[in-house]
Hints:
This protein is of the alpha/beta class. 61% of the residues lie in helices and 14% in strands. The protein has helices at 14-25, 32-41, 45-56, 62-75, 91-103, 118-132, 139-162, 175-189, and strands spanning 2-7, 28-31, 81-85, 110-115, 166-170. The site of BIS(adenosine)-5'-tetraphosphate (B4P) has 28 residues, from α1, α2, α3, α6 and α8. BIS(adenosine)-5'-tetraphosphate is lined by residues 8, 10-16, 32-33, 36, 53-54, 57, 59-60, 65, 86-87, 89, 93, 124-125, 128, 136, 145, 175, 178.
Amino acid sequence: MLNLILFGPPGSGKGTQSEKIIQKYKLVHISTGDLLREEVANQTELGMKAKKIMDSGELVSDRIVIGMIRKKLEEHRAGPGFIFDGFPRTVAQARELRKALTDYDEEISVMISLDVPREELVKRLLNRGKETGRTDDNLETINNRIDVYEKQTIPVAHYYDKMRKYVPVDGMGSIDAIFKRIVKVIDQLK
Ligand code: B4P
């Protein structure tokens, strides 16, 4: 199985590149952001709690996120592999993912990290906010999301780097140019 983590700050293009990766490699896409937004749209109890946290730019609790991931892993255990988009975002989530995959005799193949400077992230997300009306794409929340990423999520990159699974990729340029860089990394794993 090919199990990828697509990593990077908010607005670095994880969702955008995931779509292209799943088309080419037929992996099962698990985006915790999308799963949480689905709960919000369906106005579930979990969704109501998550919306407040997401609109402030903070992270939803590890317990909730890990519960969602375990459910998805169980549903697709016989599949070709997974792409984890926006997860793990804390070291606790990374440890739990390792345990969950070990239960299926699986492991992470690689973490691909999209490098994009802060000014560009803010520009992209403000633009998306205008186009889609996403309520967490306003300047105050964007800045907090990037701060939260720097404090709580960057340690996850060190966690995979220690296992020699961390590969940074330049996340600037056209969507296709970035995709080519990602494909090169994935194809070298085979
Ligand atoms: P996410 O849904 O993961 O949102 P994101 O980080 O903003 O998105 P992404 O990096 O995928 O950006 P995209 O490709 O869309 O998280 C939202 C919230 O959910 C979090 O703040 C948190 O509260 C919660 N959450 C999610 N996962 C969690 C977890 N594991 N634990 C706890 N809480 C969690 O790109 C952004 C924009 O840039 C798009 O408009 C796109 O069109 C544009 N773009 C992409 N590539 C471009 C390029 N090359 N050039 C120009 N523009 C580009």
